[in-house]
Design brief:
CATH class of chain A: Alpha Beta
Distance between the termini of chain B: 53 Å
Strand order of the largest sheet of chain A: 1-3-4-2
Number of helices of chain A: 3
Oligomer: heterodimer
CATH architecture of chain A: Alpha-Beta Complex
Radius of gyration of chain B: 38 Å
Largest sheet of chain A: 4 strands, mixed
Order of helices and strands of chain A: HEHEHEE
Number of domains of chain B: 5
Helix content of chain A: 25-40%
Strand content of chain B: 5-15%
CATH architecture of the largest domain in chain B: Beta Barrel
Shape of chain A: globular
CATH topology of chain A: Eukaryotic RPB6 RNA polymerase subunit
CATH topology of the largest domain in chain B: Barwin-like endoglucanases
Number of strands of chain A: 4
Distance between the termini of chain A: 19 Å
CATH class of the largest domain in chain B: Mainly Beta
Number of helices of chain B: 25
Structural class of chain B: alpha+beta
Structural class of chain A: alpha+beta
């Protein structure tokens, strides 16, 4: 599937690569290392589409039935 | 805090060298003790393998009975034998590899090809095996491959010729290292280790001998097995060196194989289990670990616990739902430790002094010594007692105990109650709290546990307390309440229910209220007035009622209109929840207690009972009922006729038969719902059965219809009856009539009674639904258990993240909105409107 179609699909939430600095902030906020973050594989279609690399922290903004919008973070791991 | 983290655990085959290295001694003598009762050197209880007898010292570590952990020994097997656990794997390897060169009997290319496919590990190996076993010639060395046969559990044949373990070992040795990976064997293993040449002997501490009262020693099953094994090993060695003929050697070898096999797994299929002289099977390694009473499920996952009790439960509406009636006999055995301090020393002495119930059973010195209190040492102990001692006193009123009923499916299956010591042998609970435990009183048993430390007591009393668990963590609904309380409330708050002054006083007394509501000169009081006395004044609410036209309206704690029922009280009751919200859970608990006592008393006053006559239909209604049934039956018969003549228009996607069945079933269920309307229309609303049904206390309209009007359609597997004889259910019917009554429609009511045929039809339905119920509860129970086990260590942390036991983040914001569902109120979630109104009212 081509990138545009994939990323604009209504069922695909917004994925963003966090900058090194922002990623560090998130880890500090929760008092964790990347090991404790939820994971996502490099072969995930969205990860391929946004050109994320191993070790990147991805911020996912989802629609939530209870909270409106909600943020989720994942670290990219090898497939 | 994690001090050490386990990175990984790996399992591999144990090689003979490791066995010898970790061995403290080579065991050779098939005996245990000498005539003096001292362990024989080189025997199975050699002191190098650890000590089990007091007074001796371990020759390996120097430890005593309780400090020496035990050490392995080993037996050098004269001839190699197959390890039972690997019988199948060895068979696979023999079939997959060349008997001459040991390589996989497939070309390199073919193996590479299979390795590229998505299947990995065992699945990949199976693919290779299935291809390789068909090869009749080795592609590497051109050697001919003979057919290998596996005779479970430990013999192999090649073209009918017996393959001995030593030959097999040689073949496995020939498998080149680089061929191991496609064979699903990891690098640290060598396949020939699956053939045993050395056998580890478990430490003496794992197979202790027991000294009987008579002074005789009784050895562990494992030791017995090892003795036999050693004997045969020795005999085989002797025969070999004496150059005995081959058949004798082979027999002994097989015997050795048998002993090694049963030493590891005495329930191997295909070989007779080794037995005691009494005929009981020996318990060897496999049996020790396996199953419910095995090491894992029986000793590691589940243990027996002290300071606990179990008995049959029975109901007692006079105690609080937060209490539990403990049988005196139990209370006398269960103790609570009491640390003696300067402040409580007098109290402690009093407990020791006491002749009966709340007395002390034991005194524990600061050294840890535990002394049972008897009549004779009492005085001495009182004299000796000083701060630092611990006194174990009997359970008494008010002690927190943890109460539980299995299966413990949710949090409310284990709650803390306050003990109340009672005569009798059963544990008493208020029936209002039976629902969260899913308990009834038809013989159910429940467990109690007595928390032993102050921390545990405080924790139980604060977190596990019944009142803390009144609100369901799922949605904040109230869980407690009871059918009789709902019936009683409905009866009392029905418009027109009146009580005399005397009765009113008696009812209120039950709730601990000693004065009449409002006007003292009234002759009669309504039930609503009395119940209003129990509702806190802060309560304002409106709610549904099934029993009265008007809504339930409560203002300032006074019931203005409406009849209270399941919507207001009992599981899911809105009034109780309102009280919990406004006045706290403790008040809600008190409310349930008082409602319970008052309504039960009221029911006894007014009387509430059902009789056959309640379900008789009067003539007019009965005619109407027959008309309804007749009409629908005729309609169904019309359809049946159309079907038989082939005129029935099938529904899309259905056959004619299916269409007919659907139509008839629909007609039959229409009978049910029309009869329901009829029953509701014709029955007096004061009919006790109707009160119970409508208030939601017990039973539903279906029960009323079945008793008074018609049982309706009997169904098996969701279909009208069709099983039994050819074309009919019972031999008394005509074939293939398909008529409603022949296929299980029962127009009779329980009151009228059933014909023999109807009785059978009803029994078929009954059995089917009973079986169905059993299957469903089993399946859903298992499903629930799986889900619960998967989620068991997820935890909401202080920062509202959900994390696993290894601190992995599962959710960043619990439920995305960080709101505990227990604090939500139905559809609205958090009722902001209500909070606003309340604040505004306070301001005024």
């Amino acid at each position: 599937m081509d990138k545009e179609t994939l990323l604009n699909h209504e069922l695909v939430p917004k994925h963003e690569i966090l900058s090194e600095k922002d990623a560090k902030k998130i880890l500090e906020k929760y008092g964790i290392t990347k090991k404790e973050l939820p994971k996502i594989k490099t072969n995930d279609p969205v990860i391929k589409a946004i050109d994320a690399e191993e070790g990147d922290v991805i911020e996912i903004t989802r629609d939530s039935p209870t909270a409106g919008k909600t943020k989720y973070y994942r670290v990219v791991i090898p497939a | 805090m994690i001090e050490k983290e386990i990175g990984e655990i790996s399992f591999r085959l144990m090689d003979p060298e490791t066995v010898r290295e970790m061995s403290a001694i080579r065991v050779v003598v098939p005996d245990i003790y000498d005539d003096a009762g001292y362990p024989i050197e080189g025997g199975l209880m050699d002191l190098k393998m650890g000590v089990v007898n007091p007074g001796l010292r371990c020759k390996t570590c120097g430890g005593r009975k309780d400090t020496c952990p035990g050490h392995f020994g080993h037996i050098e097997l004269v001839r190699p034998v197959i390890h039972v656990g690997f019988g199948r794997k060895i068979y696979d390897l023999l079939r997959t590899t060349c008997s001459e060169c040991g390589k996989i009997t497939l070309t390199e290319e073919k193996v590479k090809e299979i390795e590229k496919e998505p299947e990995k590990g065992i699945y990949q190996f199976r693919k290779i095996r299935n291809k390789a076993k068909k090869r009749e010639k080795c592609p590497h060395c051109e050697a001919e491959q003979k057919k290998i046969e596996f005779i479970k559990p430990t013999s192999y044949r090649e073209n009918g010729q017996r393959l001995r373990p030593n030959e097999i070992r040689e073949r496995l040795e020939r498998i080149p290292e680089e061929h191991l990976e496609p064979l699903n064997i990891s690098k640290e293993n060598k396949p020939e280790w699956m053939i045993l040449t050395v056998l580890p002997v478990p430490p003496a501490t794992t197979r202790p001998s027991i000294t009987l009262e008579s002074g005789d020693r009784s050895e562990d099953d494992l030791t017995h097995k090892l003795i036999d094994l050693l004997r045969i090993n020795q005999r085989l060695a002797d025969n070999l060196s004496a150059g005995a003929p081959q058949p004798i050697i082979e027999d002994l070898w097989d015997l050795l194989q048998y002993h090694v096999t049963t030493f590891m797994n005495n329930s191997t299929t295909g070989i007779p289990a080794a037995k005691h002289r009494s005929g009981k099977s020996l318990q060897t390694l496999f049996e020790r670990i396996k199953g419910k009473e095995g090491r894992i499920k029986g000793n590691l996952t589940g243990k027996r616990v002290n300071f606990s009790g179990r008995s049959v439960i029975s109901p007692d509406p006079s105690i609080s739902i937060g209490e539990v009636g403990m049988p005196l006999e139990m209370a006398e055995e269960l103790t609570v430790p009491m640390k003696v301090t300067k402040k409580n020393i007098e109290k402690a002495k009093e407990y020791i002094e006491n002749e009966e119930h709340p007395k002390a059973n034991y005194v524990k010195r600061p050294t840890g010594e535990k002394i049972k209190i008897t009549e004779f040492n009492k005085e001495e102990l009182i004299e000796e007692l000083e701060p630092g001692y611990t006194v174990e006193r009997q359970l008494k009123d008010g002690d927190p105990v943890i109460f539980n009923r299995q299966p413990s499916l949710h949090r409310q299956s284990m709650m803390a109650h306050r003990a109340k010591i009672m005569p009798g042998k059963t544990i008493r609970i208020n029936d209002g709290i039976a629902i969260p435990y899913n308990a009834d009183f038809d013989g159910d048993e429940m467990n109690v546990h007595i928390p032993q430390t102050t921390e545990a007591q405080v924790e139980a009393d604060n977190l596990l307390r019944v009142s803390e668990n009144l609100l369901s963590p799922k949605d904040g609904e109230i869980l407690a309440g009871h059918q009789d309380y709902v019936t009683g409330l409905a009866v009392m708050t029905t418009k027109g229910t009146k009580f005399t002054k005397k009765e009113t006083l008696r009812l209120l007394k039950k709730a601990g209220i000693n004065k009449l509501p409002g006007d003292k000169d009234k002759k009669e009081y309504t039930g609503r007035e009395i119940i209003s006395e129990l509702i806190p004044n802060s309560i304002d609410m409106e709610g549904k009622s099934n029993l009265s036209e008007e809504k339930v309206k409560i203002e300032d704690g006074q019931i203005k209109t409406g009849t209270l029922d399941e919507n207001t009280f009992g599981p899911g009751g809105k009034l109780t929840r309102e009280i919990a919200d406004e006045e706290g859970v403790e008040e809600a608990r008190r409310f349930i207690d008082r409602i319970g006592r008052v309504t039960v008393e009221a029911l006894m006053m007014k009387g509430h009972t059902i009789t056959m006559k309640d379900y008789e239909l009067d003539e007019k209604i009965n005619k109407e009922r027959k008309k309804i049934i007749k009409k629908k039956e005729d309609e169904a018969k019309k359809d049946i006729k159309a079907y038989k003549e082939g005129r029935l228009e099938p529904y899309p996607g259905k056959t004619e038969k299916e269409t007919l069945e659907a139509k008839v079933r629909e007609k039959m269920s229409e009978i049910n719902s029309e009869l329901k309307d009829l029953v509701y229309r014709s029955f007096d609303p004061k009919n006790p059965g109707v009160i119970m049904t409508k208030s939601g206390a017990r039973g539903d309209w279906k029960n009323l219809v079945q008793m008074s009007s018609a049982l309706g359609q009997a169904a098996v597997e969701g279909k009208r009856l069709e099983k039994g004889y050819k074309g009919r259910i019972l031999p008394h019917q005509k074939r293939e009539t398909l008529s409603p009554q022949d296929r299980g429609f029962i127009p009779n009511s329980f009151l009228e009674g059933l014909t023999p045929i109807q009785l059978f039809q009803n029994a078929m339905d009954g059995r089917d639904s009973e079986i169905d119920k059993g299957l469903n509860t089993r399946d859903s129970g298992y499903l629930y258990k799986r889900a619960a086990n998967a989620l068991i260590d997820l935890k909401v942390e202080q920062d509202k993240t959900v994390r696993s036991a290894s601190n992995q983040i599962i959710q960043f914001n619990y439920g995305e909105d960080k709101i505990h569902p227990q604090n939500t109120r139905g559809e609205v979630g958090i009722d902001i409107k209500k909070i606003k109104n309340k604040v505004l009212k306070e301001k005024k």
